[in-house]
Amino acid sequence: MEEPSSGAYLKVLKDAKSDNEKFAALLLIAKLTKAKALSKEERNEMFSTIGLKFLIRLLKSKTAPEGCAVSMYQSIALSILSGLCTDPHQIAKIGLEKHIEILNGIVLKNAGEDEMATTMVADCYDILQNLASTAEGCDQLLVKWTPVTLCRVILDNLYGADRAEGVLKCMLSVTGPRVWLTHRQTKLLHSMMVYLVKSFHNFQDETKFEMCGFLQQMLQSIPDDMVNECKKSTWLPVLVKTLKEILTSRLGEDQRNPTLCLVAVIIDRLGVTTVLPPLTPDCQLLLVITHLSCIEIRMILENFSFEQVVQRAEVLCSCYLLMENIIYYMTMSPSLKLDEKQVTQLHHAMVGSVNAILCFLQEVSEREDSHKYPEPVVIATVRVLGVWMSEETSALKEHTYALLPFLLKVCKQQVQSRNTAKGSGDRCSEQPAGIADQQFNEIRPAYQSQKPSAEKNTASLETAQEGLFSMDGSGSKVTQRNNSVEEVLSASIEHCDIKCDIDKSDISTQCEEQEKPDQGNIQSVKISENEVLEDGKRKEKNNNVTDNSSHKSKSVTFSMELCGDCGVADDNLLHSEPTDKSICSVVKFDTENNYNCNNVDLLRFLLPAFCHFMAEDESRQILLTNQTQTLLVDYFKLCLSTVMEGEDCNEAKGSLLVVCGALMNLVVLEKDLISKDEDMHILCQAVVEAVPVLSNREDYLILWCNLVTLGMFLLLRQYKTSRVLPDQKSKFFVVAMSFVKGPFTSKTHKRKEVVQISDVYTPIWEDVSELWHLTLQAISECIPLFPVLSHTLLSAGVLPHWKKLLTKTSGKGVPDSVQQSVLKLITVAVKTSPKVREVAKTTGYLVISQTYQQTDLQSLLT
Predict the structure, then answer these.
(1) How many angstroms separate the Cα of 11 from the Cα of each of 28, 43, 186?
(2) Cβ-contact 558, 599 below 8 angstroms
(3) Residue ranges of the alpha helices (H) in 304-451?
(4) pLDDT digit string (tens) for 750-800?
(5) How far apart are CA 641 and CA 652, in angstroms?
(6) I need a surface site. Which of 394, 412, 472, 747 has the fewest CB within 10 A?
(7) Average pLDDT for residues 244-266, to the nearest whole number?
(8) Closest to 634 in 3D by CA, of 690, 703, 682
């Protein structure tokens, strides 16, 4: 017999003449939505016929037909809503946001005591899960305090805690820190971490490793302004101790991978210091983590085909993240006081992993589809290689040089995509839809390489672990426990109320139709140690709620922010490296089945290494053969346009500082190229136009100094072929002269006049002092070539300014390098221009030349 269609049920509802008939029709529809998969059109038709207003009336009703449970109408309404609103984007738009607190109240007060209550809770979580799957739905849940409800269910171990955990995970994935920031839930976050860490510590089975993903999401969601507070928390030492026990045990792949992913997030979010004293007795844990991550990288890249590597992107990228943070810490922080053997082993482990990375990228470069935009895992691999090369260019030099053409090609693809997006009116970081779809939503077919079998991976790594470190146990269980851990967390729990930092009435009373839940106030929940965390395990009944939401695979997202300033090696050569190596990128997991690497600026990671390569003849020729100058100029213009537009430009400023260093190396070492290359002329025009615009702005001062220096050297190299208009040159020279004067002033120190750095330049002088000397050097060389410079020198008041400073100090209190640079500049100007010579004579520079023993200047003025 053919089953009645949805239309037949709707007809019954429309034709109903009595309440009993309507009630019967609703029961049929509720049954239908659960038993039959409806098309989108059928769901829309049924929903529009029934209407949300009617369903809400049922949901709020406190009456029921005679002989039925009081919550019968609520149960029917929830069943229909959960059955019809299965599209997350649809449910966020139907107008349910005003009634979310009803769902919050139901999940709080229903203990699943009978089949109807069980079904109602399951339906509520289905609706909440769909809402939590989109940004718009999450916004609605945040406004109605749903995260507080979910945490209350989890912490009080109420019925449906597992489903509440799933909804919270989804919200953390979509909204991140906003879960805690919307109503400033600082104590709630802390309470959740205490609860999860104690459970993580207590579990001695596979549940311990299943919890790693939830802990990852919680740590990733910590707001920036709460990071320092979390570093001082009571749960962090327990978490680190538990991880140490795990990592020094014998682990299989299923236990090792989630643990490494969790460690990567801890170190990235809270810093490398979390695995160092005083949280640990010594540096051994950091060494274990470094070796394990390096070994894991080698095992994945050396033992698997490309497709299999892509499938292991999560743990691979976590190991990359560990490697990046550890490299940054070891190069920028105080010594770890390792002995020579430990340092050798550490370097050897990292060199081994980098060698695997180079071989993997070499294979990728030889693939048939290497011309396409690279897979996200390739982008992540290039990025970690850039971090390594910025600090170590001598190891594996030949392999690195061989890979340079591929690295440049990937960077060109990315810069071109960003330029295209910017030209289309999109933000600089976005990519064209076609490229984005091709890049992130497909896993393209790849070659099957002949590599060792996958089984070899686990055995090899376990053997390596056993040889490197002493093991405290076997299997996944950690046998050593300390009662003090229980005491620390129990004491923390007892003082940890879940409260909002603003006054707010109980969310269960926000709906006038809902009666107050028995469990008490949501905003002030006393956690019972005996009832909630006695053994750290969930009650068995929480597994009874059916999860109808579809499982969605995790994916990896990199977001990067790396601030850099330009440093100078000597008067002839610039090496630009980021001075702040703090990395803000994290491995994130979203609910969509795709990868997202839009925010990874690969060239920014590779630029410090390119600066080193520019200084060496062999590598510089490889770079120039592959038109690196074009790439650098395109990237410079892209970042400069972002800065000039003034929106989201902090990252662009850092990028410009680094690229200026690479370009300066090129300008200093390749004079002929700079004078003839079309891209270098475009660069010169852009710099000359930008310098006057960015002058007199303190927030751009370091960048402005870099641009002045770069502009002077470009004009020097292109003085015969320059296409910059005379008026533009004159304006640039005038602004450049302010850099000659601006940094210095005279102050009284111990009753003597001395030259000191001006207040504006004092905070940044360490970053721009060499740039100042280089600018004076370039101006000195330009004066004979550009007659207008002598006039600019006079009109800008450079001679009176320095005459005043040098006279006041009477030959003392002026750094030798400063007086030599200034007097050399004035000597060249006096020699070149009769007018300057006349002014110098009348303003007392003859006496100054005698005081400072400048014989060349003295002979010109006598």
Answers:
(1) 12, 15, 52
(2) yes
(3) 306-311, 313-332, 340-365, 376-391, 397-423, 433-440
(4) 677 778 899 999 999 999 999 999 999 999 999 999 999 999 999 999 999
(5) 9
(6) 394
(7) 93
(8) 682
